Amino acid sequence: EVHLVESGGGLVQPGGSLRLSCAAFGFTFSNSWMSWVRQAPGKGLEWVASIKQDGSDKYYVDSVKGRFTISKDNAKNSLYLQMNSLRAEDTAFYYCARGGSYFGSWGQGTLVTVSS
Amino acid sequence: DIQMTQSPSTLSASVGDRVTITCRASQSISSWLAWYQQKPGKAPKLLVYKASSLESGVPSRFSGSGSGTEFTLTISSLQPDDFATYYCQQYIDFPWTFGQGTKVEIK
Predict the structure, then answer these.
(1) pLDDT band of B103, cuts 50, 70, 90
(2) Distance from the A14 Cα atom to the nearest Cα atom in chain B, whole angstroms
């Protein structure tokens, strides 16, 4: 059974940094595109970034380009999102998801709050 | 960016009702559309991909149709477990974009 577990969320001041992690279980991680999708509290879903199986290609929504970096460690079955220069509008639940186009499995989400 | 617009935003229905949710794309996306269900406090769950392909394990009362710019998600007989928010998502062109959601409420 596919299982995705996010960690690393928390409260951070504007301009600060945070690194999210996602541990993957139950499927061949090295063969999978992976993505991050976020949801501001009470709002809709927003795709953030996707990474190809071997990490060679990465795609981002414009609002995070240059600030966020997606990466994956296939040896550790783990996905990451390095978030720098955080803004209040980045406050959201961040979900790790399997897939690079549509998302067949999701983690439970981790909350990132950007506030002073 | 491709804009996805769902209607209605909220839908009130009773158990046993046939329910249809519409999703329109700002340009043709062929059949590159997915539908998700989300319950409060939970992660979204994939229901349909490629406009009409039912994800494994999803009840057959759910069905998707459409191509080009207009798509529908139909629940043939609404069950108590189906009261949730539903989202469409296009994946023909980055950035992938979602509709704003349709909340299905108990009438």
Answers:
(1) very high
(2) 25
- Environment class of residue A81 by beta-carbon count within 10 Å: exposed (0-12), middle (13-18) or buried (19+)? buried
CB contact under 8 A, A104 and B46: yes
Model pLDDT, residue B71: 98
Inter-chain touch B91–A101, beta carbons under 8 Å: yes
A110 touches chain B (CB under 8 A): no
Residue B8's Cβ-side half-sphere holds a number of Cα atoms within 13 Å equal to: 8
CA closest to B57 among chain A residues: A104
A66 — contact with chain B (CB < 8 Å)?
A: no
Terminal alpha carbon distance of chain B: 36
| Neighbouring residues of A95: CB distance < 8 A, sequence distance ≥ 6 | A6, A36, A37, A38, A39, A106, A107, A108, A109, B43, B44
End-to-end CA distance of chain A: 40
Instruction: Give the closest of A44, A62, A108 to B101, CB-based.
Output: A44
Contacts of residue A9, Cβ cutoff 8 Å, sequence gap at least 6: A18, A20, A94, A110, A111, A112, A113
Which residues in chain B are closer than 8 Å to A46, comparing Cβ atoms? 98
pLDDT digits (tens, 9 = 90+) for A13-57: 999 999 999 999 999 999 999 999 999 999 999 999 999 999 999
